[in-house]
Every structure is written in structure tokens, then in C-alpha cells.
Amino acid sequence: MTEHFRSFGLVTPPTPGAIHADDAIALLKGGQAKDRSLLAYGNGRSYGDSCQNHAGAVVDMRSLNHIRAFDAETGVLEADAGVLLSDIIAHAAPHGFFPAVVPGTQFVTLGGSIANDVHGKNHHRRGTFGCHVESFTLLRSDGKTYRCSATDNPRLFAATIGGMGLTGLILSASIRLTRVQSLDIVEKATPFRDLGEFFDLAAAADLANEYAVAWIDQLAGGRGCGRGLLFTGNHAEHGSHVASRAGRNLSVPFQPPFNVLNRPFLTAFNATYRWKKGRAAVPRQTSYHGFFFPLDGMRDWNRLYGPKGLFQHQSVVPQQAARIVVPELLAAARQAGQGSFLTVLKRFGSIRSPALLSFPRPGYTLTLDFPNRGEKTLRLLAVLDRITVEAGGAVNPYKDARMSAATFAASFADWPRLEALRDPAFMSDFWARTAGSIDLKRRGAEAAE
Fold first, then answer.
1. 181-194: average pLDDT
2. N or C: which end of the chain has fewer CB within 10 A?
């Protein structure tokens, strides 16, 4: 077992068993996968244990990496589940197309993007990744391959999008890309003094732009509390149609024995970042790499957090509660003495996902990264969970490695519907820890009656 088969947050140990995709397909088609649970593993960019399966094995999907077809008129692309978004971008860009939704890294698989129903900086206009899935093929432990779409096996279609790999093995999928004038982005950075000013700007920014996201100086207190930069962007009318993997020659070659991203570093970084990005008073044209995937420029950047890794906490709270709750979340982190290297705030729109379980919902989402300091960090994360749930919000499961079963149930009331459609041969550490615990408690209560 290699270290590759672990989560990106590095807080969970590698899954001790891995199976090649072809071998897993043979087991499933032969009906021989019921004695050992499986879970698809893409490119390892999930932060927590939703991509781990210590009770069984993960299926290495990277060999299923072929683009099968592309219609340059409609933008519909068919590809294997293990194809990376970077490869899809490179294939479609010369024809004037780009994925309708991209997350913060292009080095995620197509199957993983569907299974986690990922979102991007344009949820207010395009919804989630699942909104642009035409169909997919799903192999289950009954040995059958199902074509799933809004009209074919619709229940499996809804459960698999956002289903975190629990309904079976996605083999391939067809998605609709969106036509763009170029890959380049015309970006504008607007400084705001505090969160109140950000909320005043956010709705108008969404109306006027395809993309919008805010960076928060999480360490700033006093008069600077809640300050940050609002980034808006649109595809440039004249720009590049050639994709590249610029910056991938940079890397963190080894894991330092301690957390490099300490408070003095973060304070200096935030000040420099705010000065550099905020001084441009007019829009500027930049590459799509810099706008969508800034951290992709440095391979293995997660190693900077040291051997204990990092926890990422992403929450979403209703719009009407956000002006109170978001400052409360940031204050809790400051009071705990925890600095977040990446603090991102953005607005989710009202476009519904076809997914049975989907994290985005109308409101505001806050993302925080914390170095793992053991119990101190876990206590803070529990506080952030409580604040979020009490406000009627949700915590993102595919960014999580420790939320309680109660937090998960409060965030996703429809989880029993996914459990009913879960393939019995598929399991993850996350599902066993959360839904599995709830299910056991429920069975015990029913037996006592």
C-alpha cells in the first residue's frame, strides 16, 4: 500500500488495501464483491475520510482515463470516470468549451466530481457539477451495469450524484460543457473593510459576473476584522484557447517535520496578499490557472502543514442568518488561536442540484483550513459545527474527517434515502462513522420497543 491512497488532508492513515479498476470491475461483474467492501478512489483530493475504506479496499480508478467522444457543436463530452478535469479542459478548449463548473483544483477525476457534486465560483449561475451531467454508467455488485440519467434509472442517478461513491462504480459519464470566448479571465479585485460591506457587495457582484468569490483576512481583528477582497471574473473576449499545466514544476519535495504555515507566516502572508491583490484598481486579464486553480501551481502543497496534516471546515448557512453567523464562525477561530491559511467566502444561488444529497444550498459558504493540533483543533471544529447547525446550515461531508453523526444528520436529512440505494458492497470510513452510527442507534431503539 502506498501513501498515494490517503486523503489530501493527511489526517487519516492510508487505506491498507487497493484494487486495480479492471480487477474490481471483474469482481463486480462476476458477483464476487460481496465479501469485501469497495470504494472508488480517484486522484485523492478529498480532504477527509469520504475517500477511505479501512474495512475493505479502495479501487484505483486512474487507469480509466480515456475521453471517448466530444461533440464540438453541443459541447457534450463522454469520458471514463478516471479522466482528470485538466484533461477535459485541454481537450475542449481549442473548440471554445470549458467545464460549466470547476472546483478549486483541476486535478480531480470526472467520477469524483460527480460523486461529490462539486461546486465552483459560479454556483449562482450554473449550480453544481451535477447540474451538467447528462448520463453515466454505473456498475453495481449485482453484476449489472446501469445507464443512469434524469429519465433512465432516475433514483440511482440522483443518489449517485453527490453520493460519495456509495451506489457503485461509475465507469463513464457524459457531461455538458459551456461555450466560452476564451480560457482567460478578466478579473477584478474589490477590497472591503468588513463583512458588512462584503454582504452589501455580494448580490450585485453575482448579478454582474459569471464568477465571484471572496478572500478573508481571517487573522485580522479590531478595526480590520472581516476585511478582505472580493474577486469577480468573466471569460475574456480575446484570449487563449490553449490549455496547459503551468506551474506544475514547483513542488514541496518532502514533508517538513513541523507545520510551516504558522501564525507569524500567515500574518505576513495575509498582509502581502491583501496589498498585492488589492492594489489593482481596474480589471486585469489573467490565465484560468491563476483564477480557478492557484494552489495547483505547487504540487503537494498540503505537505506544508507538517506530518499531522490539516483539517478543512466548510459550512453553508442560510442567507438570512449569514450576517450574524459568518462573523461568529470567524470569531470562534480567532478566539481559539487558530489561523486559517485559506479563508474563502462565497454566495450560493438557488439553482437546485439533481443530487439526492448535495452540500450547496441557498446562502453563504465559508471555508477554513486549520493545521491539525489535536484536541485543540477538534474542539474548535465541533464549535464551528454547532454554530452552523444551530443556524440551519450544513457542514460539507467530502471536506470532513471528524464530524459527528448528529452533525451529519442535521446537515443532510435525506441521508436514509441514500442508505436505501447504497450498494451493499460499497462503504467508506465517513459513511460508517456517521450514517452507520445513526443506523445502529436506530436499530437498537427499535429493538427495545
1. 95
2. C
